[in-house]
Design a protein that fits this description.
Elements lengths: L7 E2 L5 H7 L9 H8 L9 H5 L6 H9 L3 H11 L3 H7 L11 H6 L5 H13 L7 E2 L7 E5 L3 H12 L3 E6 L7 H4 L10 H10 L4 E5 L5 H10 L2 E4 L5 E2 L12 E3 H9 L8 E2 L1 E5 L3 H12 L4 E5 L11 H9 L3 E3 L2 E8 L8 E12 L2 E12 L2 E4 L3 E2 L2 H7 L3 E2 L2 E2 L12 E3 L11 H19 L7 E2 L2
Parallel strand pairs: 3-4, 3-6, 4-5, 6-20, 8-16, 10-11, 10-16, 11-12
Antiparallel strand pairs: 1-9, 2-21, 7-17, 13-14, 14-15, 18-19
Length: 458
């Protein structure tokens, strides 16, 4: 390999550029804008938008309240079904869920902006003098452990606390929120909203968070013996490996780690290469690619081994990447990450790809290769569970994740699970919330003889 000097540095832009590039990409609606948009809704009976929502938010009802000027009532309707409704309004792929099936979309080609209306209602409530619409039930004296302060764990804890139980959340990281805090593009959740939402959620009372917790098989046994029930919302903590030559070179890193660093830092202090290659086809790959461009990278290639239609990133996310100057490459499988220096073990300098094609339904190399120069390479091919720890704990696994029933019960007595760690999911924030809700209802039923019933305050 030829000698190569990587161009990786922070501070490629001026302060004003960073502020503009990492500002909120979808501004909050004004009250008049929200009312006008809400009045477009047909308030359908048996509304397809509600059916398409994983948390079953009564979409026509909350939109009707906005049109009446009842913003608090609208927010209460949302949060009754989804206690993380503010974050989901920002990051949920509404274009492939509720908005895709909106009757206005099928009739006129322009859906009601459900996500933006949801954000308007929830943000209005949180900015009000009395942002907590719920009343906690009388204390039951029951204690539940929740492992992981991500969307599933937080939703489970919130519902259990509303039902009068005491909840302790055990979290490894310094901040609660999981991927809402560490795994989403900075421009999607500006002004520290993830922590503001968590502060609101905790204001119901009855929830305590312990940070720095390390989950393992012995820890699970301790929790089982110390609490009435245990909910596992541990996410997927290990980045999937490419298993390619050169994967360990300097300048090659996990896209999730890059996004987390950017979320916890001033963008001006985060180093970025002049030429970046992102390997993957999901939302994480898009977030990493776009933010690399926003940090000042000149060329960003995003490469996926299949076609556009097979990418897990939605069409809107793909369009967003292109709008921001990311070059999307399809049908390319990485075969080698190349390094500089005489032995090829220096800093990463390029990625070699083999072109792919479908032959009788199977991916096959065409024989053509491409090489993209790179100062940095981000791996965004998904995350995995630490199966070793889970196997020792006695939990049953399926496809590398925790096997559960529909309500989240595992094969271990008194242990439930939800979110990304649970087998068979879509890896969406909104789905993780629903997992937490269902598990909370099942836990409540298991540890008490009372029906699941919560109250809404005025």
């Amino acid at each position: 390999m030829v000698e190569y000097t990587p161009d990786v540095r922070a501070g490629r832009l001026g302060a004003a550029d960073y502020a503009a590039r990492f500002a909120d990409t979808v501004p909050l609606m004004s009250a008049s804008q929200a009312m006008m948009e809400a009045q477009r809704c047909l308030y359908c009976f048996d509304a397809p938008c509600q059916t398409a929502c994983p948390t079953n938010i009564d979409v026509p009802s909350f939109i009707h309240r906005i049109s009446d000027g009842n913003h608090r009532g609208a927010a209460s309707t949302i949060l009754e079904s989804n206690p993380l409704g503010g974050m989901c309004a920002r990051v949920c792929p509404t274009e492939v869920l509720c908005e895709q099936v909106c009757v206005r979309q099928t009739q006129q080609g322009k859906a009601i902006e459900i996500g933006r209306l949801q954000r308007f209602a929830v943000d209005s409530l949180m900015a009000s003098p009395a942002p907590q619409p719920f009343v906690r039930a009388a204390a039951t004296g029951k204690r539940i452990a929740v492992v992981g302060a991500g969307p599933a764990g937080l939703a489970c804890a919130h519902m259990l606390a509303r039902l009068g139980h005491d909840v302790v959340i055990f979290e490894a990281r310094p901040k609660a929120g999981g991927l809402n805090e560490y795994g989403l593009a900075t421009y999607k959740t500006t002004d520290g909203f993830a922590q503001k939402e968590i502060a609101w959620l905790l204001s119901i009372g009855g929830i305590r968070i312990e940070h720095g917790y390390q989950f393992n098989a012995s820890a699970l046994k301790t929790l089982q013996s110390s609490f009435e029930a245990v909910f596992l919302g541990i996410g997927l903590g290990k980045a999937a490996a490419l298993n390619l030559p050169g994967e360990d070179l300097a300048g090659v890193r996990s896209a999730v780690d890059f996004i987390a660093e950017l979320r916890q830092s001033d963008p001006a202090t985060v180093p970025i290469g002049r030429r970046v290659v992102v390997i993957g086809g999901g939302m994480t790959a898009v977030d990493a690619s776009v933010q690399a461009k926003l940090l000042g990278a000149e060329v960003v290639h995003m490469a996926y081994r299949r076609g556009k239609e097979q990418m897990s990133a939605s069409a809107a996310e793909q369009d967003w990447a292109c709008t921001n100057g990311v070059v999307l490459n399809h049908w390319l499988a990485p075969v080698e990450i190349q390094g500089s220096g005489p032995d090829g073990r220096g800093h990463v300098c390029a990625v070699r790809f083999a072109e792919q094609a479908l032959v009788e339904g199977r991916l096959q190399p065409t024989g053509r290769e491409l090489r993209f120069e790179a100062d940095m390479v981000f791996k965004a091919i998904g995350q995995q569970l630490d199966e070793g720890v889970l196997a020792v704990s006695g939990l049953s696994l399926r496809d590398g994740r925790i096997a559960t029933t529909e309500d989240g019960a595992t094969n271990l007595k008194g242990v439930w699970a939800g979110g990304d760690c649970r087998a068979g999911g879509l890896d969406l924030t909104v789905e993780a919330v629903e997992h937490g809700k269902k598990a909370a209802a099942a836990i409540h039923a298991a540890i008490t003889s009372a029906p699941t019933s919560v109250e809404t305050g005025k």
